[in-house]
Amino acid sequence: MRAYGEIVERLRRSTVQIFNSGAGSQGSGILWNPDGLVVTNAHVARSSRPDVQLWDGRRLPATVELRDARRDLAALRIDGSGLPAATPGDSSQVRAGQLVLAVGNPLGFAGAVSTGVVHSVGFVSGMGNQAWIRAGVRLAPGNSGGPLAGADGRIIGVNTAVMNGLGLAIPSMMREWSLPRAAFANVAAVGFLGMIIGSTIGGMIGDRRGRRVALIGSMLTFGALTLVISTVHGIGSLALVRFLVGLGLGGAMPNATALSSEFVPRRFRAFAVTLTIVCIPLGGTVAGLFTQRALPAVG
C-alpha cells in the first residue's frame, strides 16, 4: 500500500491546473518533462497565454507551443527546471481489464484521484478517426487534460471526455512530445536531401514537359504534402513527408529560375534570377514563422 501511495503522490505532483484568461480553473495538464513542457487538451488551453498552477501552489504564465484541435491535444511551455515530470508509458500495450488511475482537478478539487479498469481500446462512434481508451473512472469538469496512468504510474492516456458513464482518454503513444530538439536534426537533413534530389528531377521534367507544367506540379506537391505533415505520427513518418516536401520545393527552384531568365528583360535578368532563388525558400520560412504564431490561436 505504501508503494501505491507513492505512485499516486508522484502522479498528483506531475498534474497541473490550467487557467485561461479571465476565468477560473479550466482543466488539468501533465508535466511532460522537467524543463516545463505541459501536455493537455486543446479545448482546455483555449487562451494563447494561459496560466499553469503547480502542485505546490506556484502559478506561472505559459505559452502555447502547439495546439492540435483535431486530436484535441496542446503543448504548453512554462519556465522551470527540475519539475516533477510524469513518466510516459506505452499505450499500445493497454488491455481491457487493466487497472488505471485518473488524476485531475474536477470542480476545483486539486489533485483528485479516481481508479477503475479499462473497458476497451479502439474507435468510438462519433468521436473521430482516432483510437480511444475507455475506462471506468469517475471524471468531471476539470479532469480534462489530466493523466490516465497504469498501476505502475506511467502515463498511458490524456483524459478528455465522458461518454455513457465511461471516461475517454487519448492514448499517449507520443514519446515524440518529450524528444530533445536534437532528435529532429535528421528530419531537417532529410528535407534538404529532398530539395537537392528534387532540383535535379524538376529540371529534367522541365526540359521534357515544359517549365510551367513542372513548376505548377512542384508547387502543388509542396503544398499538398505540407498539409499532410499535420496528420503524421512519429519521427519516421515526419521524416518521410519532409523528404517529399523537399522534392516539391526543390523541383520548383530550377523551373522558376529558368522562367525568370526567359521572360524578364535582359537588364533586370540577373536581379530577377537572384530574387527567385532567394524568395522561394524565404517564402517557406516566413510562412512557417507565421503558422507558428497563428496555429496556437486558431487551433
Description:
The chain has 299 residues and is α+β, with helices and mostly antiparallel strands. It has 3 domains: 2-77, Beta Barrel (Thrombin, subunit H), CATH 2.40.10.10; 87-176, Trypsin-like serine proteases (Thrombin, subunit H, Beta Barrel); 179-298, MFS general substrate transporter like domains (Growth Hormone, Chain: A). It contains 5 helices and 14 strands. The chain has helices at residues 2-13, 185-209, 211-228, 234-263, 266-298; strands at residues 15-19, 25-31, 37-40, 51-53, 59-61, 63-68, 73-77, 87-88, 99-104, 112-123, 131-135, 147-150, 154-163, 166-171. The strands form 2 sheets. It has a 7-stranded antiparallel beta sheet with strand order 5-4-1-2-3-7-6. Strands 9-10-11-14-13-12 form a 6-stranded antiparallel β-barrel. Helix 3 (211-228) runs antiparallel to helix 4 (234-263). The chain starts with a helix and ends with a helix. Mean pLDDT is 81; it is low at 173-177 and 295-299.
Which terms would index this structure?
single chain, alpha+beta, Thrombin, subunit H, Growth Hormone, Chain: A, 14 strands
End-to-end gap: 42 Å
Strand content: 25-35%
Which fold name is given in CATH as the topology of the largest domain? Answer: Growth Hormone, Chain: A
List the domain count as a whole number: 3
